[in-house]
UniProtKB/TrEMBL annotation, chain A:
<protein>
    <submittedName>
        <fullName>ABC transporter permease</fullName>
    </submittedName>
</protein>
<feature type="transmembrane region" description="Helical">
    <location>
        <begin position="88"/>
        <end position="109"/>
    </location>
</feature>
<keyword id="KW-0472">Membrane</keyword>
<feature type="transmembrane region" description="Helical">
    <location>
        <begin position="245"/>
        <end position="265"/>
    </location>
</feature>
<feature type="transmembrane region" description="Helical">
    <location>
        <begin position="326"/>
        <end position="346"/>
    </location>
</feature>
<feature type="transmembrane region" description="Helical">
    <location>
        <begin position="286"/>
        <end position="314"/>
    </location>
</feature>
<dbReference type="Pfam" id="PF02653">
    <property type="entry name" value="BPD_transp_2"/>
</dbReference>
<dbReference type="InterPro" id="IPR001851">
    <property type="entry name" value="ABC_transp_permease"/>
</dbReference>
<feature type="transmembrane region" description="Helical">
    <location>
        <begin position="193"/>
        <end position="216"/>
    </location>
</feature>
UniProtKB/TrEMBL annotation, chain B:
<feature type="domain" description="ABC transporter">
    <location>
        <begin position="6"/>
        <end position="250"/>
    </location>
</feature>
<protein>
    <submittedName>
        <fullName>ATP-binding cassette domain-containing protein</fullName>
    </submittedName>
</protein>
<keyword id="KW-0067">ATP-binding</keyword>
<dbReference type="GO" id="GO:0005524">
    <property type="term" value="F:ATP binding"/>
</dbReference>
<dbReference type="InterPro" id="IPR003439">
    <property type="entry name" value="ABC_transporter-like_ATP-bd"/>
</dbReference>
<keyword id="KW-0547">Nucleotide-binding</keyword>
<dbReference type="InterPro" id="IPR003593">
    <property type="entry name" value="AAA+_ATPase"/>
</dbReference>
<dbReference type="Pfam" id="PF00005">
    <property type="entry name" value="ABC_tran"/>
</dbReference>
<dbReference type="InterPro" id="IPR027417">
    <property type="entry name" value="P-loop_NTPase"/>
</dbReference>
Length: 351, 257
C-alpha cells in the first residue's frame, strides 16, 4: 500500500513478497494514507498541539495538579465513552448510556442505604441491571430491527423516568454514603503518583480501555465486532452470527455503563438522580473526536480515551486562560465537526 | 463412470405463487469446472443458494459424496466443505487480508492465553494467509496486514477465491467472479480458477460471460424456467448454441428428439 517506509512499525523485510504498483503521490495523499492506517493519529496530534498551546498561554497548565485534575474530570465520561465506542463501532449509537449510568448509580445507592444490602451485593445488582439495559437495547436492535438511534432515544427516556421514580428525585448525601456505604465512593478516592494526585476512577477508566483494547484486537470477538460494523451483510455471509455479536456489544456496553455509575458516585461524592444529564452526548463527543467512524467498523478504541482527554484539556485550558465557559462549548463543537470531516476524507481512500 | 460429488434431484422452491425452482437437477463431478448459465430469473441463484445453504428447498434432495445433506445455513454448508464466493465477495473492507481470510474461523493460541483469554494466534493466521495467497500466485499483495479496501478489484476477488480455496475442501462455488472486473483482472481470476481446479477441487462457476464460460468450463449446465434444461460440452457446442438454448430460441437436440 505505501511505498514510503513505515515510521512506527518496523517491518520484517522478508514480508515484502513482491513489489506493489508504485505510483507517485502528493504529500496530501501520503497524509491520507497515513491517517487511514493510523486513525488515532488525528486525535493524538490534536491533543499534543492543544497541550502545547495551552501550556504556552497559561503557565499553570502544566502543573501536576492541573493535569491530574483533567484526568479526574474526564474519568467518568471517558469510561462511558468506552461503552459508547463499542456500540459506535457496530455502526450504532447509544443515547441511553448516561441515563443507564445515573439509574444504576441510584440503584446501587438505594439498595445499600435504604434497603441495607451489603454494598458488594448492591454493586453486583447494579452491574446486572447495566447488563439488562444493554440486553434490552440489543434485543430491540437485533430482534425488532429498530434503528439503534431510535431504540436508545426511547430507552434513554425510559431509564430517565425509572431513575426519577426509583430515586424519588432525592439525592443520597455524601455523609450518608460515608456512614453506610463508603465502598460506593471507592473510585473517588485519591492516591499519589509521583506528585500527581489520581483517583481510582482514573485507574478504572484506563483498565476498561486496556481490556477493551485487548478484546478488540487480540480476540476473535473483537475482529467480529469490527466486521459487523464494517459491513454486516459481508460478515454474515462470511459466517458470522451478526445478531449474537451485536447483542454481546450492547450487553458489554451496559456493564461498562454500570462501572461508570460506580465511578460517578465517587466523582460526585453523592448519588444524584439529576447529575450527568449530558453524559450521553459527551460520550459521543469523545468517541467522534477520538476518530471512531460513526459509520462503523473503523477507528481505534484508544481514540475515545484521547478524545475525552482533548475535551478535558480544552475545558481546563480555556478556564485557566480566563475565557468564558461558552467558548469551551464553541471549541468542542468545532472539534466534532472537524473530526467527522477528517473521518469522511480518510474513508474516501477506498477506491 | 464416477459418481457425482454434489448431486441434487427435483429441487423445488416456491415463493408464494412464484416457483423459483421447478424440479431442478444438478450434478457436479470431482475435479471439474461446471459452469451454470441461464437467463435472468431462470432460477440460477436459487439453485446455487440451495446448494450453498442460503436457501432451504421445499422439496427434493441434495447429496454430497452420496450422502443426503440438508443445510440449514451457509455455515453448515461451509462446515461440510462447500465454500461460496459471493458476487459481493463478503469481505470486510476495513479489515486486513488476514482477518478476512479467517473471518468466523479464527485460530486461537495454544495454552492458557488462547483457552482462557481467547487470544488469537496472529502470526499463524498471517503465515497461513500469506502461504495461501502465494500458492495462488497472488504475489502482488505486499502486506498481509493491509486492509481489503486498499486492494484493486481483482486482488479482492483473488483474496475471496483464496479464502474459499483454503477452506473449501469439497466444492467451491463462484458467483459471477469476473462481472465487476476489467479485461486484465478477469484474466488473472480465470487463471486462478484453473489453478484451483488443478488442485483437484471442483468448481461451480455462475457467469453471464460466455467467452469466460467457454474458456474454462468442462461442462455447461444450462438453466431455464427454474430447471436444468441440459448440460452441454463446450467443445461440441458454440456460444450461440448456448445462448439459443438458454433463451429458448432453440431446443437442444437431445430434448427435441
Amino acid at each position: 500500500m505505501s511505498d514510503t517506509p513505515d515510521p512506527v512499525v518496523a517491518r520484517n523485510p522478508s514480508e515484502t513478497v513482491a513489489s506493489f504498483e508504485h505510483h507517485s503521490r502528493g504529500a496530501l495523499d501520503w497524509v491520507q494514507h497515513f491517517l487511514h492506517r493510523y486513525p488515532t493519529m488525528v486525535p493524538v496530534i490534536v491533543l499534543v498541539l492543544s497541550l502545547i498551546a495551552f501550556g504556552l498561554i497559561s503557565p499553570n497548565f502544566f502543573s501536576a495538579f492541573n493535569l491530574s485534575l483533567i484526568l479526574q474530570q474526564v474519568a467518568v465520561v471517558g469510561t462511558l465513552a468506552a461503552a459508547q465506542s463499542l456500540v459506535i463501532l457496530t455502526a450504532g449509537i447509544d443515547l441511553s448510556v448516561g441515563a443507564v449510568m445515573v439509574m444504576v448509580s441510584v440503584i446501587m445507592g438505594k439498595l445499600s442505604v435504604d434497603f441495607g444490602l451489603p454494598v458488594p451485593i448492591s454493586i453486583l445488582v447494579g452491574l446486572a441491571v447495566g447488563a439488562a439495559t444493554g440486553a434490552l437495547n440489543g434485543a430491540l436492535v437485533t430482534r425488532l430491527k429498530l434503528p439503534p438511534f431510535i431504540t436508545t432515544l426511547g430507552t434513554w427516556n425510559i431509564f430517565l423516568a425509572l431513575n426519577y421514580y426509583l430515586s424519588n428525585r432525592e439525592t443520597i448525601r455524601s455523609q450518608t454514603l460515608d456512614a453506610e456505604a463508603p465502598l460506593l465512593k471507592l473510585f473517588g478516592e485519591r492516591f499519589n503518583l509521583g506528585g500527581a494526585v489520581l483517583t481510582y476512577g482514573v485507574v478504572l477508566m484506563l483498565i476498561v480501555f486496556a481490556v477493551l483494547w485487548y478484546a478488540l484486537y487480540q480476540t476473535a470477538w473483537g475482529r467480529r465486532v469490527y466486521a459487523v460494523g464494517d459491513d454486516p451483510e459481508a460478515a454474515s455471509l462470511a459466517g458470522i452470527q451478526t445478531r449474537r455479536v451485536l447483542m454481546s456489544v450492547y450487553v458489554v456496553a451496559g456493564v461498562i455503563c454500570a462501572l461508570a455509575a460506580w465511578s460517578s458516585i465517587g466523582r460526585v461524592g453523592s448519588v444524584s438522580p439529576t447529575s450527568f444529564f449530558e453524559a450521553n452526548l459527551e460520550s459521543i463527543t469523545a468517541v467522534v473526536i477520538g476518530g471512531i467512524s460513526l459509520f462503523g467498523g473503523r477507528g481505534s478504541i484508544l481514540g475515545p480515551l484521547i478524545g475525552a482527554l482533548i475535551v478535558g484539556v480544552f475545558n481546563s485550558g480555556l478556564r485557566l486562560a480566563g475565557v468564558d465557559v461558552l467558548w469551551q462549548l464553541f471549541a468542542t463543537g468545532w472539534l466534532i465537526i472537524v473530526a467527522v470531516a477528517i473521518d469522511q476524507w480518510i474513508r474516501k481512500i477506498s477506491s | 463412470m464416477t459418481e457425482p460429488l454434489l448431486f441434487a434431484r427435483n429441487l423445488v422452491k416456491r415463493y408464494g405463487r412464484v416457483t423459483a425452482m421447478d424440479h431442478a437437477d444438478f450434478d457436479l463431478y470431482p475435479g471439474e469446472i461446471l459452469a451454470v448459465i441461464g437467463d435472468n430469473g431462470a432460477g440460477k441463484s436459487s439453485l446455487i443458494k440451495a446448494l450453498s445453504g442460503a436457501v432451504q428447498p421445499d422439496e427434493g434432495e441434495i447429496r454430497l459424496d452420496g450422502k443426503p445433506v440438508s443445510f440449514a445455513s451457509p455455515l453448515e454448508a461451509r462446515q461440510a466443505g462447500i465454500e461460496t464466493v459471493y458476487q459481493t465477495l463478503a469481505l470486510s473492507p476495513a479489515l486486513s487480508i488476514s482477518d478476512n481470510m479467517f473471518m468466523g474461523r479464527e485460530i486461537r493460541r495454544q495454552g492458557v492465553l488462547g483457552k482462557w483469554f481467547g487470544m488469537l494466534d496472529k502470526p499463524a493466521m498471517d503465515a497461513f494467509s500469506r502461504q495461501k495467497l502465494s500458492e495462488l500466485g497472488l504475489m502482488t499483495i505486499q502486506n498481509i496486514g493491509q486492509p481489503i479496501e486498499t486492494l484493486s478489484g481483482g486482488q479482492r476477488q483473488g483474496v475471496a477465491v483464496a479464502r474459499a480455496a483454503a477452506f473449501g475442501s469439497r466444492v467451491i462455488i463462484l458467483d459471477e467472479p469476473t462481472a465487476a472486473l476489467g479485461v486484465k483482472e478477469s484474466r488473472r481470476v480465470l487463471d486462478l480458477i484453473l489453478d484451483v481446479r488443478s488442485r483437484g477441487i471442483p468448481i461451480v462457476l455462475i457467469s453471464h460471460n460466455m467467452p469466460h464460460v467457454f474458456e474454462v468450463a468442462d461442462r455447461i449446465h444450462i438453466h431455464r424456467l427454474g430447471r436444468r434444461l441440459c448440460v452441454i460440452n463446450p467443445k461440441e457446442h458454440t456460444m450461440s448454441d448456448a445462448v439459443a438454448y438458454m433463451t429458448g430460441a432453440r431446443v437442444p437436440e437431445a430434448l427435441a428428439a
